[in-house]
Amino acid sequence: xxxxxxxxxxxxxxxxxxxxxxxxxxxxxxxxxxxxxxxxxxxxxxxxxxxxxxxxxxxxxxxxxxxxxxxxxxxxxxxxxxxxxxxxxxxxxxxxxxxxxxxxxxxxxxxxxxxxxxxxxxxxxxxxxxxxxxxxxxxxxxxxxxxxxxxxxxxxxxxxxxxxxxxxxxxxxxxxxxxxxxxxxxxxxxxxxxxxxxxxxxxxxxxxxxxxxxxxxxxxxxxxxxxxxxxxxxxxxxxxxxx
Length: 243
Hints:
Layout: H1 9-12, H2 16-19, H3 41-58, H4 71-83, E1 97-99, E2 107-119, E3 125-135, E4 139-141, H5 143-154, E5 157-158, H6 160-175, E6 180-188, H7 189-192, E7 203-208, H8 215-225, H9 230-242
Parallel strand pairs: 2-5
Antiparallel strand pairs: 1-4, 2-3, 3-6, 6-7
Helix pairs in contact: 3-4, 5-6
């Protein structure tokens, strides 16, 4: 089953100055304190609202202005209930498996799953698409659950490598198989909106397990990801039929 052999000890010896703006991940699990869930969501929102208000005041913003007055509360709600809601295990999607009564044992691919995450180094957005595939070992999962699993792990401060591995690990666990593949292609605003300010680059990460480690399966999966839009596919099929 899913196994990750990683050595993060060298990274743990680095100081903040050593890391600077470099992209770095120190663990597969999202770094959380033991008391991460001692406070209720409402208590967390109250504290975030207070501290974000102080940040805005420190920046010199006038919180008596109609446009800014409600911003600390809006940000707090957004953090806890929306963009970082994946931190709370209570929000993990409930997944039910079904018997593979269709007898379909080729790969199933769910492509172009749009997600929004946030870089854990600068708390600015990561926007991308995930492509997920698995081969049934006797059970199948509802298609929408694949999207929900991606969204759950995306909605937290993230590093793209960790996001890729967390999705793969969860799917292997749920499906009871190593035959899982993930490709993520994303734009990082910490690269495009600040720092080097490169608006054209994107980052691609991948995971291949079980049968997908075979070049033939990997190639098949990647070919599916390069299919033309559905309208063009329909046109090609119609042309062939008429011919």
